[in-house]
UniProtKB/TrEMBL annotation:
This is Arginine-binding extracellular protein ArtP-like. Residues 56-269 form the Solute-binding protein family 3/N-terminal domain. Transmembrane segments: none annotated. The keyword Ion transport does not apply. Its main location: other. Residues 1-24 form the signal peptide. It comes from the Eukaryota. PANTHER family: AMINO-ACID-BINDING PROTEIN YXEM-RELATED, MEMBRANE-BOUND LYTIC MUREIN TRANSGLYCOSYLASE F. It is found in: Cell envelope.
């Protein structure tokens, strides 16, 4: 009964308070903050949050499981460096890439995991025109490009220099920016595209001749032939992909800029190429947006 009375009393005080009044209900339970309008900073509510970054563990040399099952790679190292500068607690989590993004009826959508906030960001994703309707992004930290991959020997005689691709069947991975929208922006005419659930499925489609060309951001795929021509589907590079309205970029971008200005970004790039024995697509001059404008 006492609890009920307290609730009624608080409601009554709130109800009779006029705009500009100094009345305040000291015994009312605290209300959930309006996260859409609240700006979080180093001293704000998110100081005690653990920020989670999702990878699928199959993207060598950026985020992969080593022979002992440890998650490692350039993205893992970069996130650790940026979070230390920003004084944030950060963890890596494993999930299927479709929890970040997927394709349905030729449109890129945010994945369930990102939308439900199972994690806060998906590193290693390309910012593109058609993704900007579904996601926010941090400043880019890697260069990227798009390539054409065929079965060994290019049995379909695909020529990437032509503008009419309509006689070839394309495939791309679900959620990829290397899609029909990008081909249209490149001025290419296409007629048939098969959405592959993953890379093994895309490889099978090429090898059994169901598809002629895989359009992807990869420079090497075992058992297939990646043609030397390069295109761009991106709007700036590879970044951490975020749920719309995320506050992560507000602390990430200044911390990443500090990493670049200190020379540690370039050192991390050079050290990682030795550490992982692979080429890292680091940016020669990473670009930055202002902390007030987290969208890239």
């Amino acid at each position: 009964m006492a609890l009920l009375f307290t609730g009624v009393l608080c409601f009554a005080i709130i109800a009779i308070s006029l705009p500009g009044s100094s009345w305040a209900c000291q015994r009312c339970p605290s209300r959930k903050p309006d996260l859409d309008n609240e700006v979080h900073n180093q001293d704000g509510e998110h100081d005690h949050k653990t920020w989670l970054f999702s990878v699928n563990g199959r993207k060598r040399p950026y985020s992969f499981l080593d022979d002992y099952g440890n998650l490692t790679g350039f993205d893992v190292d970069l996130i650790d460096e940026v979070c230390q500068i920003a004084k944030k607690r950060c963890k890596m989590v494993l999930s299927e890439f479709t929890e970040c993004s997927f394709t349905s009826r030729d449109i890129n959508y945010a994945g369930r995991g990102l939308m439900a906030e199972w994690f806060d960001g998906c590193p290693g994703y390309v910012n593109s025109i058609d993704r900007e309707g579904a996601f926010d992004f941090t400043d880019p930290y890697l260069d990227t490009y798009a390539s054409f991959t065929v079965a060994p020997g290019n049995p379909s005689l695909f020529d990437p220099h032509t503008s009419d691709y309509s006689e070839f069947t394309f495939t791309h991975l679900t959620g990829a920016v290397t899609n029909s929208k990008c081909l249209a922006r490149l001025g290419k005419k296409v007629s048939g595209i098969i959405i592959a659930a993953n890379l093994p499925e895309a490889k099978t489609l090429l090898l059994n001749r169901t598809a002629d060309v895989l359009f992807s951001p990869r420079s090497k795929i075992t058992g297939l032939e990646v043609l030397p021509e390069r295109e761009h589907c991106d709007a700036g590079g590879t970044a951490v992909m975020l749920k719309k309205g995320s506050h992560l970029a507000q602390w990430w971008n200044p911390a990443f800029e500090s990493l670049v200005r200190s020379g540690q970004y370039q050192k991390l790039c050079e050290d990682s190429q030795v550490k992982y024995n692979r080429t890292i697509r680091c940016m020669a001059s990473p670009t930055h947006s202002s902390p007030e404008s987290p969208e890239v």
